[in-house]
Design goal:
Blueprint: E1 6-14, E2 22-32, E3 35-40, E4 52-62, E5 64-70, H1 85-98, H2 103-119, E6 122-128, H3 133-146, E7 149-153, E8 155-156, H4 170-187, E9 191-193, E10 196-197, H5 205-218, E11 222-226, H6 230-239, H7 246-251, E12 262-266, H8 272-281, E13 284-287, H9 289-294, H10 302-308, E14 311-314, H11 326-343, H12 353-365, E15 382-385, H13 398-408, E16 414-419, E17 422-425
Parallel strand pairs: 1-4, 5-6, 6-7, 7-9, 8-10, 11-12, 12-13, 13-14
Antiparallel strand pairs: 1-2, 2-3, 4-15, 15-16, 16-17
Helix pairs in contact: 2-3, 4-5, 11-12
This protein binds guanine and fe (iii) ion.
């Protein structure tokens, strides 16, 4: 048997299909060469002699996936939420992000961010940096050392930003991006570059054209923001009168799915045309409910996206969101969907715990490939959860314990973490 084979045992819970949980008490989860070999109720003979790490009645679930988070904003999380998006960016976010021109500042702040991300249940994340290449590489160095698997973006922004946080020109922005991508290829294995035009108001047409060339040349994925806030959407109409809808302002440059794997955060106000285009192009939606509440954006019609068969994952969107926990994001997704159902549209029924668990695991994980489930061949990302503080295992089903975990968990309940078969802590 391969020496990299090992087995973990506990109360297993994962999701293959949105809305359905697979659970197994005291099950065995076999890892072979960094991949899931299988889940078993009793261990097949061929695994006799393979080490088994027994976690008793602790729960074992796939690692969580954060499809949208801003690392430089971690420093002001939980403050400055008195304004809507555009004023919030100008008043608080841009001044803070400008500080990352200072490498010492960046190292200090990004160390806290990466340590906290590593300690939580997230195994994969798509992360915004700032426009500064040295600071973004400091962030990527730290992530590479952490054992997490991430995609990280040097942000592009060449208009409608203060002088202190605006790139000199489209050409300089694209050239810096190319140099950074080349550097990343030499330096990192598990930390991948992802193109990151901040959002349409921050990027000239010339920059978008240049980024498409970079995207094609290096085969890169892309992340950005879409239809988050009403004033933002009006502004995009003024800036891009030729676009049929906001998403079309990206699609016109080939930066909206299809041959460019894309995550769009928010999609609170996506209309039927935008939803159709996202579906046709396979765009991933990063649902960030806490951020949408904190900066008063609204509530995304996630049920509509699911009915339509769109790819949807969860995002923390710190510092629109306050915490990195994707369990908390799942809880907020359920609660927000109930308010939306009650106050906005009673034809879209609320989300269940099983549905949001799928979004936070396999739904977002699909952006990374076979990630977020315990089906054979999936990358072995797993976290072990001790919920004995709040749910005696003999009194509750695994499904109920998982649901409670969304509401009651604390960081110390996360007992072990594996990413692609590597143990991060135990
Ligand atoms: N749109 C453009 N930039 C940002 C950002 O930093 N946060 C959020 N929530 N939306 C944005
Ligand atoms: Fe964001």
């Amino acid at each position: 048997m391969n020496p990299s084979t090992f087995i973990v045992r506990g109360d297993i819970c994962y999701s293959e299909v949105c809305g359905e949980l697979k659970t197994l008490e005291r099950g065995y989860l076999v890892c072979e060469n960094g991949l899931v070999e299988g889940v078993y109720g009793s261990l097949p003979e061929r695994f006799a002699g393979i080490p088994v790490r027994d976690f008793g009645r602790q729960m074992i679930i796939p690692g969580l996936v954060d499809l949208h988070v801003h690392a430089p904003q971690y420093s002001f999380r939980g403050t400055h939420m008195d304004l809507e998006l555009l004023d919030w960016l100008n008043r608080y976010t841009f001044p803070e992000e400008s500080k990352y021109a200072d490498e010492d500042y960046a190292r200090k702040r990004y160390t806290v961010f990466v340590n906290d991300l590593r300690r939580g249940a997230t195994t994969r994340a798509c992360i915004f940096g700032t426009l500064h290449v040295p600071a973004t590489e400091i962030l990527m160095d730290l992530l590479e050392q952490s054992g997490l698997r991430t995609m990280v973006g040097k942000v592009n922004m060449d208009r409608n930003a203060p002088d202190y946080l605006c790139e000199e020109s489209a050409e300089v922005s694209a050239q810096d991006t190319v140099e950074w991508v080349k550097d990343c290829r030499k330096r990192y294995r598990n930390t991948k570059p992802i193109l990151t035009p901040r959002f349409t108001p921050s990027c000239t047409d010339a920059l978008m054209e240049n980024l498409k060339k970079v995207q094609l040349r290096y085969g890169l994925p892309l992340q950005s923001h879409l239809s988050e806030n009403l004033s933002e959407i009006e502004w995009v109409k003024e800036l891009c009168p030729e676009a049929e809808f906001y998403g079309d302002a990206y699609d016109r440059f080939g930066l909206f799915g299809a041959d460019c794997p894309t995550i769009m955060a928010h999609c609170v106000y996506s209309d039927e045309r935008e939803i159709r285009r996202m579906k046709e192009n396979g765009v991933f939606v990063a649902h960030c409910p806490e951020s949408n509440m904190n900066v008063c954006s609204g509530i995304a019609p996630v049920r509509r996206f699911l009915d339509e068969g769109l790819h949807v994952g969860m995002g923390s969107d710190v510092a629109g969101g306050t915490v990195l926990s994707i369990f908390t994001a799942m809880m907020h997704a359920i609660q927000a969907s109930k308010l939306r159902w009650r106050l906005v549209d009673d034809s879209l029924k609320p989300l269940s715990a099983a549905e949001v668990f799928y979004l936070g695991t396999k739904g977002g994980g699909a952006f990374f490939g076979k990630v977020g489930s315990f089906e054979p061949g999936y990358e072995f990302d797993a976290v072990v959860l001790d919920d004995s503080r709040h749910s005696a295992p003999c009194e509750y089903s695994i499904a109920d314990r998982l649901e409670r975990f969304l509401y009651f968990h604390q960081e110390q309940d996360i007992k072990a973490k594996y990413v692609a078969g590597e143990e991060l802590f135990c």
